[in-house]
């Protein structure tokens, strides 16, 4: 049980401190248990299905002009949804999944006043939280026909279902490996 204490720490109320703490925990878990998961065929298959679903969602969003419109709003007009603090929707599980995808996890905020994971060209992580994938502002909704919106929500719903399955799988395995030690892998929010 003492081995598990390295995953706990008092968290500073600053939103950047919280995401840095989540990153630290995810890095420790990945270092300690990454090979275990990468040797698990069921996990690898789930991860591959999820990767394909993300790529399909991304392709559809690109084709429908969603990414271009978000870039225009966020970068060119300095508006956008990806404000400071939103990074705390990224859970430890989502960080771990990005590590399994070999995504480089930022260690500092690149764009002041924006989400920790936003760079000059957009989001820097591959696996993204539910809120970031399922939220469409009025500006975006005006971009889509009803048929396009239905197709997009169906495509993203499948992606998010797979994200949920992977998160549950990781949690179950880590609770088993850590002796049913309650580890809050899915914590999100701003406090």
From TrEMBL:
Write down what this protein is called: Uncharacterized protein
> Where does this protein come from, organism-wise?
Thermodesulfobacterium geofontis (strain OPF15)
Lineage here is: Bacteria, Pseudomonadati, Thermodesulfobacteriota, Thermodesulfobacteria, Thermodesulfobacteriales
């Amino acid at each position: 049980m003492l081995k598990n204490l390295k995953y706990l720490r008092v968290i500073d109320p600053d939103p950047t401190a919280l995401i840095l703490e989540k990153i630290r925990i995810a890095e420790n878990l990945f270092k300690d248990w990454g090979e275990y998961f990468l040797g698990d065929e069921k996990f690898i298959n789930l991860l591959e299905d999820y990767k394909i679903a993300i790529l399909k969602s991304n392709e559809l969003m690109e084709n429908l002009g969603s990414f271009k419109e978000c870039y225009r709003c966020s970068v060119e007009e300095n508006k956008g949804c990806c404000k400071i603090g939103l990074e705390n929707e990224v859970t430890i599980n989502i960080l771990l999944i990005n590590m399994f995808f070999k995504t480089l996890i930022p260690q500092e905020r690149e764009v002041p006043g924006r989400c920790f994971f936003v760079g000059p060209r957009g989001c820097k992580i591959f696996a993204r939280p539910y809120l970031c994938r399922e939220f469409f502002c009025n500006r975006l909704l005006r971009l889509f026909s009803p048929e396009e919106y239905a197709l997009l929500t169906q495509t993203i719903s499948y992606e998010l279902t797979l994200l949920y399955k992977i998160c549950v799988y990781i949690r179950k395995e880590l609770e088993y490996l850590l002796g049913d030690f309650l580890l809050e892998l899915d914590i999100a929010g701003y406090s």
